[in-house]
């Protein structure tokens, strides 16, 4: 459990120090992923070049099967590309040692899945505390931090309730608290509102927007909800293995008149 003891690596030497407070935080270079299924070759990512500035909130839209999850997994170092590179600040992920990669996953990235992946028989607080326990923090301290985070996501009174007893929206709040308890700089959320009804989806999106601002996160959300996506700084569409500014958003298809349809939409790799 205590990686520091096992490896001698100082756990407080956060990988987050590798990135500056502004400027580029993530960049991909000709990122490709090919899956082989029998004789079938599936290439959901076929040359992805894009960069993300610190503090940006980006939506990645695209039909089911387009490769949104695959891309987020590569950015989170949960999977490895077939070709191409992912840079976190100046660090090339594929050049990191396994211990450094584990630190990156645990400390730099907070990941939220569509289906929260909570442990249903553990309490909300125990679920949120899990990443701290993995880091070797004492249980009492971890549970205290988890309680604070449950307060931040509006579930202060649910700390001792089993995760399996919570509603879908509440479970997603717990999952968000768990993703952020290690104070990562990156929040990667894979269709975080995909399993929720419209009202809960709106509430969860608002929560993510608030936490993005108050915790100075850089956030990338995969979603197929264009009206939610439009509220981010930039919408990129993933289709046929490529990432490009979303044509539908550029055309204002979702009909949101609150900001120009092209607001914040930049070409991949363009800096702003
Ligand atoms: N482990 C895997 N093995 C084989 N094919 C996969 C694997 N993971 C994803 N795929 C395929 O890659 C494509 C992209 O999947 P995914 O990234 O899950 O899309 P999305 O998240 O946009 O719905 C799909 O065709 C899917 O079937
Ligand atoms: Mg997916």
Structure description:
The chain has helices spanning 3-7, 68-75, 98-108, 124-134, 139-152, 168-180, 198-214, 226-229, 247-251, and strands spanning 24-37, 40-53, 57-61, 83-88, 91-92, 109-112, 186-190, 218-222, 234-239, 242-245. The chain is α/β, with parallel strands linked by helices and 272 residues long. The chain has one domain: Rossmann fold (3-Layer(aba) Sandwich). The strands form 2 sheets. It has a 6-stranded mixed β-sheet, with helices on both faces. The protein has a 4-stranded antiparallel β-sheet with strand order 2-1-4-5, with helices on one face. Strand 9 (234-239) and strand 10 form a beta hairpin. Helix 4 (124-134) packs parallel to helix 6 (168-180), helix 5 crosses helix 6 and helix 6 packs parallel to helix 7 (198-214). The relative contact order is 0.17. Residues 1-13 and 254-272 have low confidence and may be disordered. Bound molecules: adenosine-5'-diphosphate and magnesium ion (MG). Residues 68-69, 190-191 line the site of magnesium ion.
């Amino acid at each position: 459990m205590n990686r520091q003891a096992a490896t001698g690596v100082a756990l407080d030497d956060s990988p987050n120090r590798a990135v500056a407070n502004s400027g580029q935080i993530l960049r991909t270079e000709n990122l490709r992923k090919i899956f082989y299924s029998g004789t079938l070759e599936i290439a959901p990512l076929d040359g992805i070049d894009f960069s993300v500035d610190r503090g940006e909130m980006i939506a990645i839209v695209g039909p089911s099967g387009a490769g949104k999850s695959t891309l987020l997994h590569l950015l989170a170092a949960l999977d490895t590309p077939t070709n191409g590179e992912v840079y976190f600040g100046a660090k090339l992920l594929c050049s990191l040692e396994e211990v450094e990669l584990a630190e990156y996953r645990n400390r730099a990235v907070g990941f939220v899945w569509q289906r929260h992946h909570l442990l249903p028989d553990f309490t909300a607080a125990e679920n949120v505390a899990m990443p701290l326990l993995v880091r070797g923090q004492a249980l009492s301290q971890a549970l205290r931090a988890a309680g604070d985070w449950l307060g931040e996501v509006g579930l202060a009174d649910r700390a001792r309730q089993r995760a399996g007893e919570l509603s879908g929206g509440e479970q997603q709040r717990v999952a968000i608290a768990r993703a952020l308890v290690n104070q990562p700089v990156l929040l990667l959320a894979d269709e975080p509102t995909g399993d929720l009804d419209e009202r809960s989806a709106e509430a969860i999106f608002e929560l993510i927007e608030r936490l993005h601002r108050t915790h100075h996160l850089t956030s990338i959300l995969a979603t197929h909800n264009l009206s939610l996506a439009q509220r981010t700084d930039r919408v990129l569409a993933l289709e046929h293995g490529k990432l490009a500014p979303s044509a539908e958003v550029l055309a204002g298809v979702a009909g949101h008149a609150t900001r120009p349809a092209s607001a914040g939409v930049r070409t991949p790799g363009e800096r702003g």
